[in-house]
Amino acid sequence: MQKFILSIDQGTTSTRSIIFNKKFEIVSHDQLEFKQFYPKDGFVEHDPDEIFNSVLKTSNNVIKKAKIHSRQISSIGITNQRETVVIWDRITGNSIYNAIVWQDRRTVNYCEGLKSKGFAKKIQKITGLVIDAYFSATKIKWILDNVKSSKKLLKEDRLLFGTVDTWLLWKLTEGRSFLTEATNASRTMLYDIKKNCWSKELLKIFNIPHKILPNVKNSADDFGYTTLFGNKIKIGGMAGDQQAATIGQACFKPGSIKSTYGTGCFMIMNIGQKLKISKNNLLTTIAYKINDKTTYALEGSIFIAGAAVQWLRDSLKVIKTVQETEIFYSKSDQSQSIYFVPAFVGLGAPYWDGDARGAIFGMTRNTGVAEFVKAAIDSVAYQTKDLVIAMQKDSGVPIKHLKVDGGMVANENFLQFLSNILILNCDRPKITETTALGAAYLAGLSSGFIKDTEEISKKWQSDKIFKPKLPKKEVDYLYQGWLKAVNKTKTKKNSK
């Protein structure tokens, strides 16, 4: 009987499920968008039940599309939007509040308070992270402090916390498995990435009880099983979306680097098994933990990438589909120097300015939809250059080659401009669903589909390499214009 792997990719705006065969080729695919809630300025929330239902629906759909039986699925891999927080009642299985999304900025002032108290160096030393509302810890604290039922449920030992991987696992196993894994744990701002355990010191600072936290396992491990698709299926792999993409892109050698363009943009460089704290406002994080060996990475996080295109479609309504962006980009007036700084929820690395807000510079009477679209797409390339410069400073290694993936890499105009502005070769893989692929590889490692990471590396294939075409002088001119726009957008307290 032919065997398959089910990969669940639970993202920020949609859920994808994919069936892979033993050769890790895509057999069937399904995707479902879900609702975004913005109750106040800077607040971003999801309905945890809607997220779980989207997983059930897409997973059932891909099994049907593949024309297979659930008993043919050897293992399930889960990858997820990171840092997003769900807290629920273990008795009823109901969340006590909406999921607070990684983009949410409601705890910015609390984070500033932590910085003023001198906790920045301590937190970075333990977690590899900078103090920011982006991470899970302050979101957990907000729910515990602001949701009335939390205190009563906490006393009754009924509260559980999880990032989205833990929530999905708990629901899929019908409460049997309350677990996370190292990459997701490393994004909470509560995890000691050197000792590989929850930090008692940080739990005390945030006043978060240890008993609500899940146990932490390897990225490829035994996470239990689900019977919700008809038969008993093992869940064998879990990782945060960006780390899963790192695995999917076969970035197993120190110095290898990938950049994923989804809702946000996330660049990760493998730095090996020796922990190194960034000195240039990047994050140090766990790339993956396999066979009890931890591999670390430097990461640069951009909050708004593909979300800028969604804004053009859903809020401004100047485009009807994401695919139209390539047409508008081609029609745009290249002579107009328009800079769009998409700081809708602040600026991420390397600026970390939670109070900054979006702005557009350089508009004229001739500026139209095409120029808006181009500026939005180009902003992602400029933000990527910010990260590349910081990463080269931190690593001391000149970056010559960048593997790219995510929804935006279907736009070849974007990839050509990205290559131009970075003055780097940008390599798009044959399978661009690298996040789901990485989760499938982890499930494959634990189920015996794959022997080791070397075998994964051999499977990686390039689709197309984009090479720089602009003179360096022109690149420098364009990038200086970007830096001026960013400096005008930053808040005074965060300006250098």
How would you portray this structure in words?
The protein has helices at residues 48-66, 108-116, 120-127, 136-146, 149-155, 164-172, 182-185, 200-206, 241-248, 306-314, 324-331, 369-395, 412-422, 434-447, 453-459, 472-489, and strands spanning 4-10, 14-20, 26-33, 45-46, 73-80, 85-89, 99-100, 159-163, 179-181, 191-192, 197-198, 215-217, 225-226, 233-240, 257-261, 265-272, 283-290, 293-302, 339-341, 359-361, 401-405, 425-429, 462-466. By secondary structure, the chain is an alpha+beta fold. The chain folds into two domains: 4-241, Nucleotidyltransferase, domain 5 (2-Layer Sandwich), CATH 3.30.420; 250-429 and 461-496, ATPase, nucleotide binding domain (Nucleotidyltransferase, domain 5, 2-Layer Sandwich), CATH 3.30.420.40. Strands 17-18-16-15-21-22-23 form a seven-stranded mixed β-sheet, with helices on both faces. Helix 1 crosses helix 6, helix 9 (241-248) crosses helix 14 and helix 11 (324-331) crosses helix 12. The radius of gyration is 22 Å and the shape is globular.
Please describe the structure with a list of short key phrases separated by commas or semicolons.
Nucleotidyltransferase, domain 5; 16 helices; 23 strands; 35% helix
Total individual domains: 2
Number of helices: 16
Shape: globular
Strand content: 15-25%
Query: Could you tell me the radius of gyration in angstroms?
Result: 22 Å
**Structural class computed from helices and strand pairing:** alpha+beta
- At the fourth level of CATH, the homologous superfamily of the largest domain is ATPase, nucleotide binding domain
Distance N to C terminus: 62 Å
How are the strands of the biggest sheet laid out side by side? 17-18-16-15-21-22-23
CATH topology of the largest domain: Nucleotidyltransferase, domain 5
**How much helical structure, as a percent, in the residues?**
25-40%
